[in-house]
Write a structure and sequence with these properties.
Elements (H helix, E strand, L loop, with lengths): L1 H25 L5 H21 L7 H17 L2 H4 L6 H7 L5 H30 L1
Helix pairs in contact: 1-2, 2-6, 3-6
C-alpha cells in the first residue's frame, strides 16, 4: 500500500514540476505565473515529501508552508547573494531573489487547500472504518 502511495506521489510530483516549468517558460501573464505558480510550488513540495513519508504526518501542509515562508523571508535578506550563488541563474530561479508578501499568501492558500485535502482523506478513511 505504501509503495502505491509513493508511486502516486512520485508521478504527481513529476507532473506538477512539468506544469511549473511550462508555466515559467510559456506563461507571462499577471495571474497564473505569479499566483497559481506559487500555490503549485507548495503542492510540489508536499508531494515530494510524501514520496518518502507517504502517511503519518498530519501537519505536513503546515510544515511545507513554514518552509516556503522561510525561503521567502530569506529572499528578503538576499540569501542567494549571501551564499555566493548570485551569478547562478539556476539557484537564483530555484531559491528566488525577490521577497514578496503576496508569495507567502499564495503559499498559505496552497497549504490550506492541501490541509483540506488531508482532512477529507482522514474523514473518508474514518467513515470506511465505521462501515
Amino acid at each position: 500500500m505504501k509503495m502505491n502511495k509513493r508511486l502516486i506521489y512520485g508521478i504527481l510530483t513529476a507532473i506538477l514540476i512539468t506544469v511549473e516549468v511550462l508555466i515559467a517558460l510559456f506563461i507571462h501573464d499577471s495571474f497564473v505565473r505569479p499566483y497559481v505558480g506559487d500555490m503549485l510550488v507548495v503542492v510540489v513540495l508536499y508531494c515530494l515529501v510524501r514520496i518518502f513519508i507517504p502517511e503519518g504526518v498530519r501537519l505536513l501542509p503546515l510544515y511545507v508552508f513554514l518552509f516556503a515562508a522561510l525561503v521567502e523571508v530569506l529572499q528578503y535578506f538576499h540569501i542567494v547573494d549571501v551564499l555566493g550563488l548570485g551569478d547562478s541563474a539556476f539557484f537564483r530561479t530555484l531559491i528566488g531573489g525577490t521577497f514578496d508578501i503576496k508569495d507567502i499568501v499564495c503559499y498559505g492558500l496552497g497549504c490550506i487547500i492541501l490541509g483540506l485535502c488531508e482532512w477529507i482523506k482522514i474523514r473518508q478513511a474514518r467513515s470506511k472504518d465505521i462501515e
